[in-house]
User: What shape does this take?
Amino acid sequence: MEPPRECRQETPAIREAAAEFLSLIGPEELERCLFAETLAVVAAEGQAAGQRWAAARWAPYEREGAPARRCLLVQAGSRSRRHGVPASSTLKAYVTLQLETLEQEEQERLELRAHPIVRRTHMVSHQHGMTVTKNFQEGKAEPHCWSFSYSWAELQGLVLEGANLLLLRVMACRQIVPPGLVFPTIDTEGHLCTSSYCPLGIQQQAVGSAEAEVFVIKRAVHTSTGVSTIWHSSFLPSGRLARMEQVGCPMLVLLQDESVLGKTDGVEPQPPFPKQPLDWEEDIQLWSWFMDRKEELQASHAAYVQQHPELRALLSDFLQALLLQQPCDPISFAAQFFAHQQRPRTPFTSTGAASPSPPPHRPLANRE
Assistant: This one.
């Protein structure tokens, strides 16, 4: 399906300037941007509301029928609560050294107990350009799916979210943003639009109980509807994010780990993936898996009990024997009872129900 004509940005000059800027980014600059970071999501009143993490590293990109390519793997995610409802988002992108996106997948999930909402956006490049596929699903209803396609001529200088993370780190390390810097991008609806960058200067900002000098960059995504989404991102000289705020959003992202201030700008050898605290009841994906597995086990257990009615007779005999004898050690009593129990015939009719021990003259091996 083709996007509406008004969503296509006929700006060849912007695309050419963007492509030229990206071509001047060297591999050594990108090497400095390969690290992992974890920040806190904080509500406007200062209360902790979640966590955000991002990481970039070298990785092979494999596609069926094509040789593997060495590229940059960018991964990011967040989890928080929106008006008391757990929400999460994930990003995974394979990006070349020229910051061209080979493939990217984004997912947003709002965990409403009865009807969780999931939005997925998948973008993949091919010989003719790029295809954008979007999925929307609410609860257990059938997902809605639609897709757009763009030619390479329209995508010159394109910077998607994964590449944007690396681009911001590069400019933060340079502490320079050229005036009038604009790139083509794709908005949340899958339509081609533009994103602009401009510097807001060097400022002082608190990091935990310390204070650090940060370089602030403003990024705005301009859609065809005339509505712009704006972020203010503050970076340390090492390129690490110290603060990110979306204008008009009650949540912001803050760096609270002071130890990051002592890190040098040198290359870090393949940093470990950030370890996240596991709170499965708050993690919407783990909660969903738990509920699915719970329902699966309940159905399996019910089917097994229905297929084996002798279980009810066996349990009835055991409870009758337990209540009649009232042993001081019910665990040992249960072990003896079930070790020597005969196959029950009907509830409360087993002749050995009151005694857990078999008659001594009848070997266990010869029992029916």
Q: What stands out?
A: The first helix runs from residue 12 to 23. The chain has six helices and 14 strands.
